[in-house]
Amino acid sequence: MSEKKKVLMICLGNICRSPIAEAVFDDYIKKNGLSDKWEVESAALIGYHTGKSPDNRAITTLKEKGISDYSHAARPITKEDFKKFDWIFGMDEDNIDELKRKSPKDGTAKIELLGKYDPEGDIIIRDPYYDSGREGFVKAFEQCKRSVAAFLKENK
Ligand code: 4NP
Q1: Ligand 1, from 16, 124, 125: best to mutate by most atoms within 8 Å of Cβ?
Q2: 16 an active-site residue?
């Protein structure tokens, strides 16, 4: 069997958007028999939340949408990640700028906005961390779901 293709989901803190994106990707590959072809992780651009579980609003949203087996400990991205992963997905333009700045010269990962694949064209997955409610998390989930499905259909 050939080596699995590897995807890394990135956001600023790795406690809101990228864990949702990772959980959605993992759920999709499991449900569609693609786990022998793909693997997914997530990480942060800042080390501030290292070791923390995702924000409760992210966990609640995932559970509400039928994903109840997800757990994660936040970690910062490393230089090696830029060589290990085939794709590194950012959630917004600031993420992409920071990823390009951090990428070593010999980095091979393709750096893209996850929302670039959204068939509804909602390309920026906005940071919901400072919101008072959970709406932004639900929206991020739906954007991730549409984008992940479209990405995996395009890259069979
Ligand atoms: P995330 O949300 O990047 O989607 O995980 C954030 C989490 C924490 C912070 C910012 C955004 N923060 O500044 O601590």
Answers
A1: 16
A2: no
Active-site option among 11, 16, 55, 81: 11
DSSP summary character for residue 13: S
11 is a catalytic site residue: yes
Residues 6+ apart with CB under 8 A from 26: 40, 70
List pLDDT tens digits, range 97-149: 999 999 999 999 999 999 999 999 999 999 999 999 999 999 999 999 999 99
In this prediction, residue 156 carries a pLDDT of 80
User: Cα of 42 to ligand 1 centre, how many Å?
Assistant: 13
Is the CB of 11 inside a 6 Å radius of any atom of ligand 1? yes
Q: How confident is the model at residue 34 (pLDDT cuts 50, 70, 90)?
A: very high
Structural domains in the chain, CATH included, are: 5-154 (3.40.50.2300)
pLDDT value at 88 more than 80 = yes
What phi and psi, each to the nearest 5 degrees, are found at residue 72?
-160, 145
Helix H or strand E segment including 95 = helix 93-102
